[in-house]
Write a structure and sequence with these properties.
heterodimer; A: 116 residues; mainly beta; four-stranded antiparallel beta sheet; B: 112 residues; 50% strand; globular
């Protein structure tokens, strides 16, 4: 099946620093990618929809200036958490539909962010 | 808006027991329905799906039937194994290329 990778798999940073998380589709092109956030023992909450070549669409309550999303190519979307604080500590997961109009999505393995 | 409600866990079963995890949904139109599984320390994996009413998704001994009349997509397995211990998420998508709406997840622990 299709493979989506994320890098890094985990990161620890100091409060106030910025962290970049990469999401890559390894064997297919993804014009759209989705970014989710998962708190411990909770479900996934959609943060934003990343579209190649255009601005991301953010869900209500998600700060676009804090969570910068760039979908620079058909295989790469990045999420940058700017000026991270401990409350940003979470598990960040990306996903991508394999084909436009097809409802199945493939998920990356996730990135665990811990802000000290 | 669209939503998914699934039974709260954790669920603890003995090996070879029968499993049911309830899932109901609210959506306009005819969404596609999914069950995803998340093993400890790993990302989500698609377990099974159904795209229209009365469809039955099945995989690895798990089954779920799309019931439009009861807006449900309950997950079942006749005989669970220790290796089935994971968190199970019910989800829907209204149409292709749109984000998934997830339930809260149900943690299953199977003991030998």
């Amino acid at each position: 099946g299709a493979v989506v990778s994320q890098h890094p798999s985990w990161v620890i940073c100091k409060s106030g620093t910025s962290v970049k998380i990469e999401c890559r589709s390894l064997d297919f092109q993804a014009t759209t990618m989705f970014w989710y956030r998962q708190f411990p023992k909770q479900s996934l909450m959609l943060m934003a929809t990343s579209n190649e070549g255009s601005k991301a669409t953010y869900e209500q309550g998600v700060e676009k200036d804090k969570f910068l999303i760039n979908h620079a190519s058909l295989t790469l979307s990045t999420l940058t958490v700017t000026s991270a604080h401990p409350e940003d500590s979470s598990f960040y997961i990306c996903s991508a539909p394999v084909l436009a109009g097809v409802d199945e999505q493939f998920f990356g393995p996730g990135t665990r962010l811990t802000v000290l | 808006g669209d939503s998914v409600t699934q039974m709260e866990g954790p669920v603890t079963l003995s090996e070879e027991a029968f499993l049911t995890i309830n899932c109901t949904y609210t959506a306009t139109g005819y969404p596609s329905l999914f069950w995803y599984v998340q093993y400890p320390g790993e990302g989500l994996q698609l377990l099974l799906k159904a795209t229209k009413a009365d469809d039955k998704g099945s995989n690895k001994g798990f089954e779920a039937t799309y019931r439009k009349e009861t807006t449900s997509f309950h997950l079942e397995k006749g005989s669970v194994q220790v290796s089935d211990s994971a968190v199970y998420f019910c989800a829907l998508t209204p149409s292709g290329n749109t984000p998934l709406v997830f339930g809260k997840g149900t943690r299953l622990s199977v003991i030998a």
